[in-house]
Structures are given as C-alpha cells and as structure tokens.
Design a protein that fits this description.
Low-confidence stretches: none
Distance between the termini: 28 Å
Number of helices: 5
Structural class: mainly alpha
Amino acid sequence: RDWSSDVCSSDLQKLGMTQEEFAQWYGIPVRTVQNWEQGRCDPDLLSILFLRLLEKEPHAVTKLLKRHNLI
C-alpha cells in the first residue's frame, strides 16, 4: 500500500505507544514522528520500510534492535 499518515498512527496504536515513547524507543526525533502522523511530510524510503516491518513484525524488530544494542 502507499504511504499515508494512517500507517504511522496505526503502528503507534498497535504498539500501544505515544508519539514520544515511539520516538524515544526507536531513536527517531519526536517532531519527525509528529510530522509523519499529521501528514506534514512523508518518511524517506528506509523509514517507510522500517515502519512496514514494524507493522508486520514488531516483536522481531525490537528483538533485533536489542540484540545489536541499538535500543
């Protein structure tokens, strides 16, 4: 599916996180997450891939990031 601000909102709801929690947990500036969610700007390709992977496999992403000491 094409990117839309609904994807970010949906991911946050599925993860049960606020924008601030999501941003801190995944190392993304809060303002960036707010801009994505409010449709002010679209994420770049790598961010879209990350968000889609989070949407499909949130636990696997978290496990991988922890394994590499990235979170």
